[in-house]
Design brief:
With 290 residues, the chain is mainly alpha-helical. The protein is built from seven helices and three strands, in the order ααααααβαββ. 74% of the residues lie in helices and 3% in strands. The longest helix has 102 residues.
Length: 290
Amino acid sequence: MDKQDELLKEAEKLAKHMSSYQHDLAPTITSNIVCSVDAKEELLDECEEIWRQMEECQSKLTLLGIETLPESDAQLSLLMMRVKALTAEYNQWQKRSPEIISTNLDVLVALGKEELQKVDHDLEMVLSTVQSKNKKLKEDMKREQQWLDEQQQLVDALDVTHEEMKNQVVQFSEQRALQELKSKMLKIRAYKEELLSALGEFLEEHFPLPEDESAKKKKKSPAEEPTVQLVTLHEILEHLINKLMSTPHEPYLTINDSFWPPYVELLLRYGIALRHPEDPNRIRLEAFHQ
C-alpha cells in the first residue's frame, strides 16, 4: 500500500505539472508571444519527458493491481484508505513549493511580460471602475448637498413663519381673552342691575314702609310728629351689600332709628343678616358669595 501511495502521489504531481505546461503556458507562448525556436523546442521536450514519466507510473500502478479487501471490515478499510489518501494529499500540498516552469531565460522573460500585461490590463479596468464610481458619487453628493440646502432654506422660512404666527396667536389670544372678559363683565353688570331691579320691585310690593301705621299715630296724637324718616327694606339690603363689598374686613353696619325693627328682625331670623357677637346694635350681611 505504501508503494502504491507513492506512485499515486508521483502520478498526480506529474499530471499537474504536465497540465500546467500544456494547457496554460505552451499555447499562450506559441500564440501570443514571439519566442526563439530553441526555447519552444526545449519546452516541448520537457513536456514529452513529463508525459513519459506519467506513462511509466500508470504502468506500474496497473501491474500492482487493486488489493482485495476482506468482507468483514471492507467499509472500515475503505475509510482508512481514504483517510490515508487525503492525509498524503494534504502533506503534499503543505510541502509543495513554487516550481520553476523552465530554466530558459527567453521563456521566463516572455511569461513575465505576459503576466505583467495581464496585471496592467486588470489594474486599468479597476482604475476605470473606481473613477466611474467616484464620478457618480460626486454627482450624488452634489445633488444631495443641493437638496440639503433647499431643505435648510425651507426650514428657515418655516421658522420665521412660525415665530410670526406665534406672536400673532399670542396677541390674538390676549385680545380675545380681554374682549371675553369685558363681555362677561357687561353681562354680569346687566344681570346685576336686572336682579337689583327685580329685588327692588319685589320688596316694594311685599315689604312696604309702615306709612299707614304712622298716619294712624298722627291721627291719634296730632302733637306727636315722627322725627326720623324710615328706610325701606330694599335700602337696608343695599346698605348691607355696599358695606360688605367696600370694607369686607369691617362689614358691620350700625342700626339706627331709620331701620324699622320688624325688618331687622326679619333679616336676622331668616339668616340674611347676622348680629355682632359683642355689639347687638351692629349687623352685617351673611357672606353668601364665600
